[in-house]
Amino acid sequence: SGSASAAAEGAAAASSSNTSVSSSGSMEAGSDFDDIAELGAGSSGVVQRVLHRPTRQAMARKLIHLEIKPSVRAQIIRELEVLHSCNSPYIIGYFGAYFVDSSATICICMEYMNAGSLDLVLTKAGRLPEPIVAKISCSVLKGLIYLRENINCLHRDVKPSNILVSLEGDCKLCDFGVSGQLIDSLANSFVGTRSYMAPERLNGEEYSILSDVWSMGLSLVELATGRYPIPQPDSRDYTSAFSSDRQRNLAEHREAAVKGTRLRGMEPPQNGPKQMAIFELLSYIVYQQPPKLPSFAFSENICDFVDCCLRKNPKERLGLESLLKHAFIQSYEQNQEPEICLGNYLRAVLS
Ligand SMILES: O=c1[nH]ccc2cc(OC[C@@H]3CCNC3)c(Cl)cc12
Fold first, then answer.
1. What is the pTM of this model?
2. From the alpha carbon of 116, which atom of ligand 1 is closest?
3. What is this model's ipTM?
4. Rounded to whole angstroms, what are the CA distances from 311 to 39, 221, 302, 319, 330?
5. Is residue 157 annotated as a catalytic residue, yes or no?
6. What is the pLDDT of residues 47-93, one digit of tens each?
7. Binding pocket residue ranges, ligand 1, CB within 6 Å
């Protein structure tokens, strides 16, 4: 930990958000960190809120258990080093990573976001109003563009739990596939009952930035309705969360964005099994029509935006720059109504 402290001291002086904790790769865990709370657990590991004592820096530390040989560990640490050069308001800050020898665990130290990930926000907010979904979409697009332009990497795992927000109104991407070796080491670790993977990827075809666009589109439908959108809800499912009066629904979005009020999310599927088996769900994504938002409860702009992301054929999907110019993003980007801001909304809805 001595080397880490020295590195952190030096880096902290640089006061950049990308101070490096350690690249030695052999530093024992925990010596410089105080565990404060558990932030969440996902399919690849547990995330804790920690304090890096030498720098007094609050951090989020992700622990991933990996049974791999030392040479592969060193390669993962090396491949993660490029994250030190990531400096974007839409990408989570990176402090460094190290292995805990005794428990074959990699610890990845990242910037702490005090409003957590969007899967957790959604459980409290019910569903997110359109202006908030627009702000999040804009940040996700800018984050994906930054990854492609600066580290030439795709995200590969866009979903609500990998989009982080802060009470100051920041929205950043995390857990993107920057280390090929880490991707390979995690290849068989998928556990879960839902997938944000694009049809072409489920079909074993070439993965491209347009597959990230599909995952973003699916995530936005979930954020806007409060429910994972596959299988496609039927009309009865919609009536629990949305009024039949279109104008009332549209007014409700704006009001909830300004006041930070919770909106009732959609119930899980009533008809049929509570939760579709994962294989059935994956074949549904590949063979059935893509999900879409109910036009009676949402604006044409957001309905068209998600349709442009959720085309089954990747060649028909819009690219990142075109999506950034879409009316859904522009309509909120331009008349940036001061009372509609992500920070105010999150402070109200999470209070
Ligand atoms: O503050 C954070 N920084 C980096 C990663 C991170 C991940 C988080 O949660 C991830 C889990 C995964 C599934 N649900 C929540 C939270 Cl809740 C905060 C942070």
1. 0.92
2. 17
3. 0.98
4. 34, 14, 15, 12, 21
5. yes
6. 999 999 999 999 999 999 999 999 999 999 999 999 999 999 999 99
7. 39-40, 42, 47, 60, 92, 110-113, 116-117, 119-120, 161, 164, 174
